[in-house]
Structures
1.
Amino acid sequence: MIYLELLMGFLKVGCFTFGGAYSAIPLIRDVVLSYNWLSDEELSYMIAVSESTPGPIMVNLATYVGSSQAGFWGAVLATLAVVLPSFFVILLVMNLLKTVLKSKYAQAVLQGVKPCMIGIILATGCYMILHSCFPLTQSAKVDVRALLITAALIACMSAYRHLKKEKPSPIALIVLSAVLGMILY
Amino acid sequence: MDRRSSVLADLFFSFMKVGLFTFGGGYAMISVITDICVQRKQWLSQEEMLDLTVVAESTPGPIAINCATYVGCKMAGMSGAVLATLGIVLPSFVILYCISMFLEHFLEYRVVAAACMGIKVGVGLLVLDAGLTMLKKMKKKPQPRIIAGCAFAVMLLSNIFRLGISSVVLMLTAGVISLSVFIAREKPVCKGGEGR
């Protein structure tokens, strides 16, 4: 039942992601790979598409994955699943939970969940880079081109941050990495 | 048009504009939402917007959706919440649905596949960067550091050796641990503080 899987998978994403879109990517990756909806390469392509189209990245990704797996209704279900948890949580917060969210117990739970999430995010970021640079499945153990791209991107990021005192825009970085990929591969 | 339905229409179209014209999601959207809701429409005060950002961060789901639901509900109750949320989601949905119809077999082209190899590294770096930014903002205490370190190690090992440990399970575990530590610490304080 692909519809049920889409609904459950993206409900999980909607219920368990805090903060911005990049902190949601580890969980989305987890869900998408565990259901075998996409390969790692397809997912990064979709992230790039979601990033360069307007709107919340998570909603974009959900629509895209849903539609690619099960057509129009798949897209509707996946999008609803990602939106509904935050919709109802906010309604609850406004009407009943204002005090509950501020209670020390809720805060204690959040204080455990948040650092854990940071750890997961860092691990996923590291793994995605490591996996591109050292693909153990292929014949060559070290992918020199991916290493080159990583080095070039880090150099650009730190140079930009040094010169402009602000972060380069994610879109610019993704465009740059795509161009580097096209040149080198 | 009576006042209520004009507020509803205003909510719907304002958030549709947010959904249509902001790229990059999350925090990029917050600045646009602030601009519209605080400066132009004066639906919220600056202070309320700050509160809302904190609430949006500590509740699950896309931040932009949280904001839209909140503002909609505040201005016009349930129907306002529904319309504002629909407004912000609709552009994404329509655009991505159209794209997915055309781009289904895009990955078969060599150039696109090559670009994807590069993008994979780029996205990895962006994720890593988001994590580092959050790490810098995290409280510099031993407990969160230990939790973050353990989560990092478990997740990385699970990825490398394909153990299939779900990040949801990991987060729930961390929440339970943190709550029990808190309760265990609080008990002696409660006994001592009975005279309060």
2.
Amino acid sequence: MRIIFKKSYDADIGLFKHGFHAFWYMLLLVIAIALPYLVGEFLLGEFTSMLIWAVAGMGLMLLVGHTGQASLGHAAFLAVGAYTNVLFMENWGLPFLLSMPLAGLCAAFAGMLIAIPTTKLHGIYLAIATMAIGILSESIIVILEPWTGGVSGIFAPDIELFGISFNRYANITGMYWLYLAITVLILIGYRNILRSPLGRSFAAVRDSEISAQAMGVNIARTRTLAFAISCGITGVAGAMMGHFSGVFNNETFNIVISITLLLMIVVGGIGFIQGAFMGAIVIVFLPQAISFVRDIINGMTGGSSMTIPGLESGVFGAILVAVILFEPNGLWGRWLKIRTYFELFPFYRRDMFRRQKSYLKTERMR
Amino acid sequence: MSLLELENVTLKFGGVTAVDDVSFAVEEGEVFALVGPNGAGKSTIFNLISRIYDPFAGDIRFQGQSLLDRQPYEIAGLGIARTFQNIELFEQASVLQNLLVGRHKHRKSNPVGEMFFTPFVRREEKRHRKAVEEVIDFLDLQPYREKFIAGLPYGVRKVVEMGRALAIEPKLLLLDEPASGLSVEETQDVAFWIEDIKKLMGITVLMVEHDMSLVSAVSDRVMALADGRMLAIGTPEEVQRDPKVIEAYIGSDDAEDAA
């Protein structure tokens, strides 16, 4: 059993809960940096894709997990980020290090524009409104053909940085490191938000708007801010995605991407930053795992390359159903339980994580 | 000038008059209790002061200023804190985080600085933490600091909600049934705390309560309400002896005859 002895308030304010956490996360970072020397080019590409999904997931997690606002249209903000980034680079000749944050700002602004008229909407109604925006954005991309290239799409130029050119096919290692750096920066920013008054006001809006208001939290402003930050992060992920896929059109950012994003954070563990990463790992590596298992089975049965259509989405759907039924806190929530079991061994109780149903929840004034 | 004044406040929900021409004033430094049967309009008066409802007629003034041209989120900034009858805590957050949300109106940092967690934000965090620790000491919440609300028993939640209101450092504290659902010992604790809030912290308390023993133990003045109308106002003894109050609670002879 581990007992943490705290000597100052800094211990509670710090980035990490305690030294053990700091150690493990630093070890993870070191492994992540050393990854290009450990795995082949194909897998490195998959890891890069995982980072992009994780950033997009963090964007959505901030909104859904930490502010409690549903969004089924986040692909629209991926699109805003991806297109504005390329437009800034092509038309104004801006370097990536400038165009990417600008693209994030554009997406944040777009998110704010969406948030202001929807501040009064809750739950399913907000989900429908954002879904409408997600569907609309596809058509808008087609309509704005002079800039977006319409259905034929647009090419993302190579990233030029300090005289080195980054391209998925020519220099995947460089691209991976660049994206890792962006991911870590966003991760730190996200963690900073959560440990400061802003993050607490998000949680307040999520759990009880009525008492958040009584504590002096301006609900409309907080929700707009949450949308802006969330969409900004998603926009950055969009910019990263654009360079990674090289070419994209309206189909790249369709409604399925929005839904996948939402399912991803649910599977990963809603309300935890780590959940975004867990979800991204599932999304990216599930197809690899399936083909890996398929090859083994084929080798054992001696069958030819058998393929089952829709197997990936089927397995993903099964995982989703299992998560919702057995572990509402997702993969990260399950890991937390396992960790607590070993930390407290042998004192873990079965209902340690059970949430007590509060009674007297009538008279909710909405 | 009284701290809080309600003047001829009326509120109607459709055809139902929830609060009917109610006027009273809470003086600085007193404990003022609202009593009355269910549906008398006590909680509605709280929600009017919190600006959740707009009154149909009348005026509500705090320190001489009308609250009616204020937004609901500005009320805490003026120095009015409240608790809720049905406990409205932030369930998926720890006790500490809940109390720190109470410090929201004292926040001086801006969102951009918080994203980078500048040294100023860190200093502010420590300042708020110190203030919150004082509340924790006052209410004996030390064992629960890191606990999530969702796993806490009802009695502790009630105390945490009071703590969150105290973290605001208000001038006026609105307590909506602070002792409902509590055991006898817990109710006694609440009585001591209300005394201390008044005497040590100098905070004026306006409370709604059904437990008459608590009301008579701590309150300086009591107002009885029934069907949205004021019945009596005065010391706890005076109000309890008032024939109109007895009639509202127990019923009159006429009512029995009619039935």
3.
Amino acid sequence: MNAHQSIERYNVGERATHAVAALTYVYLLITGLAFWTPALFWLSTLAGGGYLARLGHPWVGLVFALALARMHTAWRHDMHTTYEDRAWRRAIGAYARNDDAAVPPVGRFNYGQKMLYWLMAGGGVLLLLSGLVMWNVASIPTDWHALRAGATLVHSIAALATIGGFIVHIYMGVAVVPGGLHAIIHGRVSEEWARQHHALWLARLRTPRS
Amino acid sequence: MSLELRRVSASSAPATAVRLLPIVSKLVDTSTCIGCKACEVACQEWNDLPPEPTTQNGTYQTLGGLTANFWNLIRFNEHDEKGALHWLMRKDQCMHCADPGCLAACPAPGAIVQYVNGIVDFQQDQCIGCGYCITGCPFDVPKFNRETNRVHKCTLCVDRVSVGLQPACVKACPTGCLQFGTKDHMLEVAEQRVAQLKANGFPEAAVYDPPGVGGTGVVTVLAFGDRPELYGLPRDPEIPLMVRLWKGPLKVLGNLAMVGGIVAAAAHFVRFGRKHEGDHEPRGPHDREPSGTRTER
């Protein structure tokens, strides 16, 4: 362990859950995009062909939903919008321009991360419910035509919303924020990193619990 | 199969048909159906479909509905009109829509095709078993086989038609209720029959060839043509609006949004790049380490 990285940001359970969610999401993204448009049907080859992709998508979706549920139990207390988040939100332009000196300090997660979290949580619920309908479409009574078609539409819209969040999330974590990817994989960050990105969280860690 | 393809599911390329053939059609004159079920037997026999256990629902109808192994069901409906009981029989099967909702919804390239003569056919070897066709069909025809995880329906005996034979059900029909030919010819015969019915006490007789799906390859003569619901037929079938939204504008907007998101991320990286690492000198009031103990919890 790098002595320099003295602070545990994500414990092993959080990292494992995130890894399961990440891997299953990528599988769902690849197979889902294959079903979404003919131009991307070739993606199903990566999942063993269209038949296997169709077979695996709902089961892997259930695993993703379980990972989301576990994330929710672990992180929901950290995901409420706080007073400091409102200040951060007003400075979001400066944050996007990498003018971090003008960005107010935040706690364990910044407002953007929290929005991504709630987008994935809400999208996940919609995807699960609509996906269950689509999975069992042959068992849905004839008279409930609207439910069949509605579930398909909801599934697409919810998936697109999460894809938007996913693009931003991957871009931020991998390309923009140094150490972000390292932190979610290895779990530890330096004090310097914590002060730069999550100063209020660091302060709380340093404050004895009252 | 020598027939060319007019439409192919989930294909980004245009269909290939250049040698145009007449659209074929099956005529179902419900007013001359006697409910003998010869067509059901002929369908099972010709297509070598495994026997489907029948159910007793208190009617003469063979099954409650179509199944993956039963593609042609005569539905028996009783209708009381001005004190007279009418026994309405209707042939439930794939309607072979000119604008098929199943094909529009299908995500698997080539799993649903429309031959140049208008027959809509499932290619089970290309089918991935997603069931989108079930959602897209306004007639609730495609049926899922839980053993093969594929979807099945009437082929309009494309194997017979493509070599100049009529469908097995038509061959077996003893009353002339079922006829087969070009769509133009079948519509002519249907209109003649409608005129006869109108002259014989059925003023509402009509041809059922719903325009919402571009017309159907199964043309039905209904004595009570103003009320297709009596026969279990939808009044104005069309591809479900939500399916059209999903496969139309939403797909275009969604693809643009996904590409736009990736382009925006790339543009941001070129313009602003990576956040600075470890050169975080205090430069403003926000940068002092906070002294308060306000937490998020």
4.
Amino acid sequence: MLELNGIRKSFGKIEVLHGVDLEVRAGEVHALLGENGAGKSTLMKILCGILQPSAGTIRIDGTERHFADYDQAIAAGIGIVFQEFSLIPHLDAVENMFLAREMRGPLGLLNRKAMRARAGQIMRQLAVDVPLDVPINRLSVAEQQFVEIAKALSLEARILVLDEPTATLTPSEVEHLFKVMRELRRQGVAIVFISHHLEEIFEICDRITVLRDGDFVGSCAVSEVDNDRLVEMMVGRRIENNFPPKPAPDPAAPLAIEVEEVQLKRGGPVSRFALRKGEILGFAGLVGSGRTETVLAMLGAGPATRCKVKVDGVETRFAGPDEGLAHGIGLLPESRKEQGLITSFSILQNVSLNNYGKYRKGHWFIDLKKELDCTRTAMGQVRVKAQGPHARVDTLSGGNQQKVVIARWLNHDMQVLIFDEPTRGIDVGAKAEIYALMRAFTEKGGAIIMISSELPEVIGMSDRVCVFRSGGIVATVEGDAINSETIMTHATTGRVEHVA
Amino acid sequence: MSHEENTGAAGKSGGFTLGRLLHSPLALPLIGLIVVSVLMGLASDNFFSLNNILNVLRQVSIVGILAVGMTFVILTGGIDLSVGAVMALVGTIIAGLIVNSGIPAPLAMLAGLVLGTVIGLANGALVAWGRMPAIIVTLATMGMARGLALIYSGGYPISGLPSWISWFGVGRIGVVPVPVIIMLVIYAIAWVLLQRTPFGRHVYALGGNETAAKLSGVKTQRVKLVVFGISGLTSAFAAVILTGRLMSGQPNAGVGFELDAIAAVVLGGTAIAGGRGLILGTLIGAVLLGILNNGLNLMGINPYLQDVIKGAIILLAIYIGREWR
């Protein structure tokens, strides 16, 4: 149905795709795999007309097609759901689906009834029940995703690209999405599925195509490969063990932070936890279970009805992340582009952003030479791959961007780092490096809170795990109890005590 | 330009080449300046005389100084509509303190600078801690400052200032007009603040991504407070020059100057959404506006038509600027 042949793409002198093939059949879910920077996004942008290939052909149903822009690709039956949604938050599902091609009545006024009926019909076709009349921003991420998919279908899409749709979904939402995908497959839609979760590939996909560094590695049926083989195809080498070894637990280690009570909203559960020096404390739980909100509340960056924190045994009240910084506590937020980095800044400017205390000249001024030296050191420490300290961070891959955020905090003498989804959207090789950096930090006596939605990561990295549910901690587990069954059980059925 | 230059958009390292110059955010404002200068030079014999050039710079100085504060505010992603009105209020109060209250002129000027700064800080506090949009806060301040200036002066200019005050408006050191020197000193200080201090980096960071800046521990509210304070202070400096030039406190002066200041900033290549831009660009933008005013006057074009032409040129400049990137 869809055939991409020998696609090449160059930006200036640099070729990023070196002749990639992709063949997707009607009624199949086709996984497009590769590390970050392998060229998946570029290939998809070419498919939907946002970028033009330097060479190669696109065929749909055997006819060669050229897309000058996105609209032409849509007209040819291609629908794409990007990682960042393109929905208007204050409009409802119907308004979003028919945005810019509203159905009109006789007077040229909106014909809401017809649009609503059509929207309802598509939702039934997807076998989902999404509220059509409430603003999009009140829907869950999964529901918003269904609206995006419905929008693509309302445009008669026969080829649907889903770019990391599961990255922000809870397991049950993922299940629901897969159900929808299976239904679409049955109806003959060709689906290109991009995901970093390999287990999902085996669950839902029929065939795979793997890219590596812009090269076409291969295409085959899912049944022909196993997990190890997939990883090997993606990274070109076998990664035996991603996680550095855990140190022996030390219950006598002094406490870095002691949160005696934190309550996110009135009537919600009250949590308490302690963070020991030299440990990685995992925060597990479903998306929306209050993990991020709890650390933000702790730092005074988010709302809380109760919050009592001791740092090194001294009661402390933070009014914001700047005061956390002053106490040696740093936050590495989950969304690097929106919350972690100044994307228009260079690596150097991003690394030194909050640490000018380290290189001042005459109190008021920046010591530019020292700044450059320190940045080089910090970059070397975390092994950022970039042209140099002056490269803009938005030219870097996700893994390297995360390393820049880490470099920023290692440039300080920090006691506690809070990693929120430290490896989301990061390729396998860079993940291992980030894990090693985290362990190196705790081995020097630092303490880490790691919020993660990836169970293998929680299990592989954490010395202890706090499991969250409905806004509070429902269990803290350590040792052999850190396994997926225990954690998932607490996360989905743990008892939540509501306190007025 | 050294490659450490903090444009908000990181530069690539490398030597000084034509290609690098063309990619600098200053390229377009500079080209605009050259084109407009050449056109004006062709249209009028007087244009390139030293006298006329110094005259243009003198005329530019007030808006040029307002535009410095405006650059700081816009770089953080804000806007300050109150600069013209604050300038009028400060000028009126300086004149009133000297003429009506008999306060020594230097002291009155100092009081004016403090007043301007305090009004700016109040704007900043309302934006930062009051969480109100800058455009609304400064719109309100604009109205209040203008009203207070009119109340204080009874609606009439306050004249009768000691004659030496005119030195700030029309005096010269050598051949160079005093207001031009004041303006250039303010630009130099602004450059150092933006390029060589942590505060300057935080200004760019705030405009680039406020959430990221805040979460990484930058005191974003304090940065906002200070940029509006700077804008208030530069408005007050403009008021001192204005008072010297008019030899009176004029409650109705500076109407619409906030728009000229914004135009200078934008013509200078600073992104209106913040995060990118150079103070040197603002200087070029202000001079560009001044040359247009001067040149259109020299050509004897109807003043009403001049506004239309200036507006069209600003639109054109922004359009070209966008296509350029």
